[in-house]
Amino acid sequence: MKEWWVHVGLICIPLVAVYLHIPPPHLSPALQKWHSAGEVFHFRGREIFYRDSSGALGSSDVIILLHGFPTSSFDWNKIWEPLTQRFHRVIALDFLGFGFSDKPRPHKYSIFEQASVVEALAAHLGLSHQRVNVMSHDYGDTVALELLYRSDQNRTGHLTFNSLCLSNGGLFPETHYPRLLQRLLKDSSFLAPVLTRLTNYMLFQKGIGDVFGPYTQPTDAEFWDMWTGLRHNDGNLVLDSILQYINQRLKHRERWVGALTSTFVPLHMIYGPLDPVNPHPQFIRLYQKLVQRSTITILDEHISHYPQLEDPTGFLNAYFNFIHSF
């Protein structure tokens, strides 16, 4: 009789093989509605998903929203309608490799390329010569800093800022604590292809849940929508490539932190203090020390890494107070 582990192996191998080819989940009605309201444009042969909603009459103000890792523009869904009541145009995109945008592999994803995607979208929408307000979160904060650097250096095709509002991004490598899986994926070329294929809903839910506050956890439907956005176009298979942004933050710290500390663009930080990735008080103390021209809103103590989803009312109040202050 064969050893028991041989029988287990014979059972597990086909099961794993089936799992590795599981199709992505179907879109929920909420995600389907978001997708249907959007469009695509082409950037260097790749399709980039975006939404562009017309809003307040009598206003010419435009806001561009830059989402975080590993999610998508759908992160802004809870504050979308209130923003359309204040701004003439509200625009959000899925970065290359995220959400409903193309997710090429192999591909060397970079913050520089994502900034160029945003500039290309602005040109596509006829905004190259208009001042725009930028709101960003997490990964989007670093893309915003590269855009800010280009703007202040007056680079060709740059975005012209009217204001910048950041939220819970790892701006400073010295106060940024990525999760274990993120560290493994960004640094382990051998394990990464295996880990990306073995990433499943339960692991994803645990990882995302850990960066929400205990009283502000997503619903099951919201977790599932985040997972669906990630799995769309096999997005789980490019996580290791995208996560090189953590190493890029360290390499280009002087460029991006320098842009933040030297700009005269109106700045605001909305911060959820329970964030384990950018912990309180280390992160906010360093921000206050280095970015003295910025105003800051620290939300309630139970708000964590996704403030726009955990406390949309508090987030919006903080943002509107900022935008009306200049």
From TrEMBL:
Which UniProt key words apply to this protein?
Endoplasmic reticulum, Hydrolase, Membrane, Transmembrane, Transmembrane helix
A GO cellular component term found in this entry reads: endoplasmic reticulum membrane
Query: Its principal location?
Result: endoplasmic reticulum
Q: Where in the cell is it found?
A: Endoplasmic reticulum membrane
- Output one GO MF annotation: monoacylglycerol lipase activity
InterPro entries noted in UniProt:
AB_hydrolase_1, AB_hydrolase_fold, AB_hydrolase_sf, Epox_hydrolase-like
Where does the chain cross the membrane? 5-22
UniProt key word Transmembrane helix: yes
> Which is a Pfam family this sequence falls into?
Abhydrolase_1
Presence of the UniProt keyword Mitochondrion in the record: no
Question: What's the name of the protein?
Answer: AB hydrolase-1 domain-containing protein
The source organism is: Champsocephalus esox
- Lineage start: Eukaryota, Metazoa, Chordata, Craniata, Vertebrata
